[in-house]
Amino acid sequence: xxxxxxxxxxxxxxxxWLVERGFQAHHxxxxxxxxEPDSRIWAFAVEVSAVIITKDxxxxxxxxxxxxxxxxxxxxxxxxxxxxxxxxxxxxxxRAIEALELGETLIEVA
Length: 110
What we know:
Elements: E1 3-6, H1 12-20, E2 24-27, H2 38-48, E3 50-54, H3 58-64, E4 72-75, H4 82-101, E5 106-109
Parallel strand pairs: 1-2, 1-3, 3-4, 4-5
C-alpha cells in the first residue's frame, strides 16, 4: 500500500482526507518533522518508503536530478482554501495513483 507524507505547506487535513479514503498518510507536523530541513524530510520518506506530496519546488528539483529517493507528487495549485484544495485533489488523485502504478518518480499535478 502506498504511504503518503504530506509536506508542511499543505494542510494536515489532506493527510486525514487520504486516511479516510483508505491510504496510509501523515502530515510532517504529526511526525515531529514540521520546520525540519527538506533533507531530513527526504531521508525520512526514503526510510519509510513514503511518497512526498508537496507544493515546494525544492523536492521536485532534487528528484529530477537524483537517481534514487522518494517519489514526489508535486502539487501545482495556487493558494486556495482547504475545502477547495481537497475537492481539487480528489479530482487529480486517480491520475496520480495511475502514475505511481506506472513507476513514475516525479508526478506533477496541475
